[in-house]
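Please check these two lines:
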Amino acid sequence: MKRFSELTEPEILALGVSNEEEDSQIYLNFAHRLQADFPATAKMFEDMAAEEQQHKNMLLELYRKKFGNRLPYITRQDVRGFMTRRPIWLMDKLRVDAVRRQAEMMELEASRFYTKAAARTQDVDVRKLLGDLALIEQGHEATARQIEQKNLDSGALSEEEQAARQMFLLQIVQPGLAGLIDGSVSTMAPIFATAFATHSTMDAFLVGMAASIGAGISMGITEAMSDDGEITGRGQPLIRGVACGLMTTAGGLGHTLPYLIPSFWTATSVAAFVVAIELGAISWIRWKFMETPFTSAIVQVVAGGLLVLMTGILIGSA
């Protein structure tokens, strides 16, 4: 890899050309990815891609004027310490707000490149163009906001934000909440039954670990296999399955870990306190994200949880 300080003026211009071409393709990829759910934002990225193509043409025109028609092949991957871009196949999974932040970072990095490159060049025309591009990139965040304002009518942005929130609810919150409820509630009976039957904190801990991890695997697979998300819009099965499985396991481990405490009654008291926190958290999530009245959420979750808890204690004490 070459150091940036070793680049010649033809290589700097060629590097600018390849950078602008790559960034243009990334913006077009963003636009394609967002077209179905966020058409107005997709249009913004199409306009930004067009601007990058204009910058590339400005660089090519100056290069042809100064150095002829043979453009050296050089990319940012060939330059040591040069700014990098995340692979498109990784950025394809970004949320719409994360995509916008990524675009801002790309423009900031491009501005730094042109500023540094302009300081190294001696040719007046090359220095002027690079300086102009640095200023353009510095103001590109404001330009992006202007483009966004032009393309988004008064209700489009709020509609897109609502759509993003709905996708988050369908893909993460709902399966995660289902897992948390199952892990917190269904594992209470075997854990507390074992604890009260044996009065052994280690036995209760081992049963809790097995129940929590087993339930997490089961719920994760069930959620992933429930539908492919194409019709329901619930997103990728793998993501939903992982969210559901992890939250199921976490729900069970919450009142399992206290049984690492050697004292039976101390461990049980702490576990019961954790159960109360878990049930309160579930009620809050249902109220916050699922628009369930808080009183109803409390009654439903706490009543169900207490029934399961008492079932485990009664069976273990029999």
